[in-house]
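S., here's the first fold you wanted:
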Amino acid sequence: MQIYLDYSATTKPCPEAIAKMEEIFQAQWGNPSSLHFWGNRAATVIEQARIQVAELINAPAEAIVFTSGGTEANNLALFGVAKRYSFPQHLIISSIEHPAVAEPARILQESGWQVTKLPVNQQGRINPLDLSSAIRPNTVLASVIYGQSEVGTIQPLAELAQIARNQGILFHTDAVQAAGRLAIDLEELPIDLLSLSSHKLYGPQGVGALYIRPGVRLKPHLLGGGQESGLRPGTQPVAIIGGFGEAAKIAKQELSQESQRLEKLRDRLYTHLTDCPYLIPTGDRIQRLPHHLSFILNPRLLSEKITGKTLVRQLNLAGIGISSGSACQSGKLNPSPVLLAMGYSPTEAIRGIRLTLGRDTVSADVDWTAMVIKQILERIKPQLLTV
């Protein structure tokens, strides 16, 4: 029995996206920049996908720029704004951003930009008053993640974006985990820039998009041809863009029903696991991604030798796939920056785990997973319990 509970890492492409890509590889493989029949046919695929992706977030199609994924979309947002200025300005991000935002911000800071990281509470939520207080006369952009990938917390995005709009600064959000799982309406939300990734919503890997509100100007981060309105040069990968569009269409059609189904499964798994003394829930219990659960392994009951990765490996041997938020570099386990920002100690911050559900998840999966997790923790506890 194999159970995949790592849907926040990647999702299996849906059958509709696979079929669309096969069709394009066979019959619509031209260079979309070419003016002949073959090029026009490929260009039509891209424009249809642009419409489909735009409809997922209720945005105009011309506001969508295709990228190689969410990471490039985030980089284009931050560097695209920064390159508009001859002198360094001020940037605001949250303290729990994905590295695809945190690292560009770090590079900008090294080049002279002022960077403020907004604090979060122990549930990983930003206080909107902190954003108001952080804005300076030279602030040009705020970037706040929509749904945190590691702990599942959803930010008060409408309020944060409105504060930025009222102060005349641009607002970007990394919506990679939220799109296709939460309803996003960019006719209502005052968001200027929003990043998407295909493989988080049952599309192919290797393609994403940046929504750019009409009227917002960016400078390209890459240089080359004039594709994607001059902001993302290079011949577009027609087939995977087409697959992204098809996946976005299906995600929009199924969003409401599927989100409700996942919430029920998430809560069922939460109920199973909250009576386990070895697990401490993390993230906001209510303001949370519908498919997402996260915990730390209780350091008071388990040896320091037991980390999040310990449980990930043990579950993998049992045929169950989950993930851990800590990173291992050169043999050294590093605490999760997200958990540290939420107030957890370094000892606790290497003990995080994440279970994320998806289209193929059923009740039997969550029941079995909960039972196996409890059995594993009971088994390894007496072997490694601190004396």
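And the second, which I think is the more interesting of the pair:
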Amino acid sequence: MKVAASPVVLIVEDESVTAMFVKLMLQRLGAHAVATAASGEEALEMAESLKPTLAVLDICLGEGIDGIETARRLKESHAVEVVFLSAYSDAEIRSRAMAVGPLAYLLKPLDVDRLQDVLQTLRARSA
């Protein structure tokens, strides 16, 4: 039986406290949260060298490209699985996000059990 590798995660979150919390939770759940980016542009640059297997993205990232567009580009150029973590649940934003084909769309505040389910799904896919 092949043992799935611990996912390499890129967190894309413009709120530093939230980014630190997500990183801590991912590490506790066995993921290797390698880096955090505060913008979509920074995330795309980091993905070149880090080669993440999973990106956890906030949708609203302030200036520049949003999390949905960042996710689309990460999936296209690096085949990265994506999870959205957002405070927004309105139909239009959710529809745009779901069009990218994420593993999950999680609402803030972060539900750690849901995050654990996502990691288990990712591990099962790579096993």
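Why I say that: The radius of gyration is 13 Å. The chain is about 45% helix and 20% strand.

Talk tomorrow,
H.
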